[in-house]
Each structure stands twice: as structure tokens, then as C-alpha cells.
Amino acid sequence: MKLTVIEYPDRKLKEKSIRVEKFDKELHELLDAMYPVMIESNGIGLAAIQVGYAKEVLILNIPEEGDEQSVENLIEIINPIITQKSGTTVYQEGCLSVPQFYEDITRYENISLNYQDRDGNTKTLEADGLLSIAIQHEMDHLNGILFIDKLSYSRRKKFEKEYKRMQKEKKTSRK
Ligand code: Y12
Ligand code: CO
């Protein structure tokens, strides 16, 4: 299974993902194919909708401080539900579906969630720091929300202008 990352403004990214009911070979193949796409793109988080699958599936690989990304730090999250949230934190976020653009976004500082692993086992996770931010960013993808949807009206207008210009530049440099 060869996957590619869908980029804004593709309407597919607005789709709401559907709960996973079958923890079968098809799901495992999707998860296995998402990992190299995320790593090769220098990403630390990826939702299935970003590769065209509207399923409540996301993966994360947050490197430990001063360390390289390793498969040992891979977290696969299916059907997540946030059960507790507290505090606020601001972080300059980026997204593989919105290349070359970073913005300060406010999120909950601490979250607890319930989710399932690739075999359907129920898990709980308490997250803070970058992991908490990344989970919230990826869970937004499951609802068709991008981090740029959280920008103020004026920042969003500026983004659209800059993004269009960057896309035009990309196209002309390919010719
Ligand atoms: C904090 C905030 C957001 C997340 C969600 C996951 N985001 C990413 O994994 C973003 C990756 C990314 C990688 C890029 O590529 C390079 O840096 C080489 C990138 O740069 C370009 O597009 C040029 C942008 C975003 C997790 C935690
Ligand atoms: Co993203």
C-alpha cells in the first residue's frame, strides 16, 4: 500500500472520520503504510484522513529529548475520546498537509484519553507537553479541522494569501 499526504486545500481534509469497527488485516496494513509516510516526511503525527482514509486512526512519534525518532516511540491511536482536559498551552504548530506554514495555536495543556490499539484493546493515556498538543492536533483532523481553521480572521486571510503565493512558486519551479 503506497500512500501520499493530501495537502490543503484538498476538500478531503474536511471529511469527518468514522469509528473503526474491524481490527483486521486491512487496518494493520493502513497503520503499517502510514508510518513510513510520516517518517519520510519528517512528521511526528499523522491522521488517516491525511492519506485519504476517513477512519478514526492516528499515529504519533514524538522523539525523546535530544534523540532521533525511533519506532519504539510510535503510538497508534484508534477511536480516541478525550475524557479529561485542563490548562492551556501555546505552541507553534505545523502540519504535513499544510507544508511550510507554522502558527501559534492554543490547546489544553493536559489531557486524558481512552482509545483502542491495533488489536482493539482499550487503553488510557495521560498526556502533557508536545504529546498532548500532537494528540489534539491529530484528533482535530478526525473532525475535518485543520490548525489553520483556528486562526483569527486576519491571520487566516494572511495565510491564504501567503499559501497561494507559495503554491504558485512551487508550480513554476517544477516547470
Ligand atoms: C506539535 C504540533 C503539531 C503536531 C502535528 C504533527 N505535525 C507534523 O508532524 C508536522 C510536520 C512538518 C514537517 C515538515 O518537514 C520538515 O520539517 C522537513 C514541514 O516542513 C515543510 O513543509 C517544509 C512542516 C511540518 C505535532 C506536535
Ligand atoms: Co496535521
Describe the structure in brief.
This protein is an alpha+beta fold.
Structure characterization notes:
- The chain is α+β, with helices and mostly antiparallel strands and 175 residues long.
- It has one domain: Peptide Deformylase (Alpha-Beta Complex).
- The protein has helices at residues 25-40, 129-142, 153-174, and strands spanning 45-47, 57-61, 74-95, 98-116, 122-127.
- Strands 1-2-3-4-5 form a five-stranded antiparallel sheet.
- Strand 4 (98-116) and strand 5 form a beta hairpin.
- The chain is globular.
- The chain starts with 24 loop residues before the first helix and ends with a helix.
- Cobalt (II) ion (CO) binds at residues 95, 97, 137, 141.
- Residues 95, 97, 137, 141 line the site of cobalt (II) ion.
